[in-house]
């Protein structure tokens, strides 16, 4: 398994921008809702002291959100988010998705976010489900999503 000093090609970063903190908070609430709905997002992989790795699913996990302050004199804001978040993710700690957020200096309330997902629990099909459910939550159509998405993600 990867060590913390090396990069992890299986950690997929997605940079996002929100025009207000309220919209960012709405997105974080929606993402927590998706984490609560799907056991794969509450999964950790443990192997220490075991004959083989096992998948452990927690009943509940809080979405880890780290807020940083951007350096106006530093690199590009997204590069600062990437640097702060790192490129490694501990498979033993659920959930295997993380958020790093920051207010963008001089951007009239705009916020940037970096969503990192580990490929061990997120492929293209699962990403489509994740995005569809986020959209359903944010547009107020999550009732339809409950019945439609259950068969896709179960």
Automatic annotation (TrEMBL):
Top-level taxon of origin? Bacteria
Question: Which InterPro entries does this chain map to?
Answer: CAT-like_dom_sf (IPR023213), Condensation_dom (IPR001242)
* Coiled coil regions in record: none
Task: Tell me the Pfam families matching this sequence.
Answer: Condensation
* Gene Ontology biological process terms in this record: lipid biosynthetic process
Xref: SUPFAM superfamilies: CoA-dependent acyltransferases
Mention one GO molecular function.
catalytic activity
> What are the residue boundaries of the Condensation domain, all occurrences included?
7-137
Protein name per UniProt: Condensation domain-containing protein
What is the scientific name of the source organism?
Streptomyces cinnamoneus
Source organism phylogeny: Bacteria, Bacillati, Actinomycetota, Actinomycetes, Kitasatosporales
């Amino acid at each position: 398994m990867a060590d913390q000093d090396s990069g992890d090609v299986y950690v997929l970063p997605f940079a996002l921008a929100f025009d207000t903190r309220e919209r960012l908070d709405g997105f974080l609430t929606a993402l927590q809702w998706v984490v609560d709905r799907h056991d794969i997002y509450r999964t950790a992989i443990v192997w220490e002291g075991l004959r083989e790795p096992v998948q452990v699913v927690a009943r509940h996990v809080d979405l880890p959100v780290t807020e940083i302050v951007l350096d106006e004199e530093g690199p590009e804001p997204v590069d600062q988010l990437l640097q702060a978040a790192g490129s490694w993710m501990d498979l033993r700690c659920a959930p295997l998705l993380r958020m790093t957020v920051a207010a963008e200096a001089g951007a009239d309330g705009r916020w940037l976010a970096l969503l990192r997902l580990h490929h061990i629990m997120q492929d293209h099909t699962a990403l489509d489900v994740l995005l569809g459910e986020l959209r359903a939550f944010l547009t107020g159509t999550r009732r339809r999503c409950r019945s439609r998405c259950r068969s896709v993600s179960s």
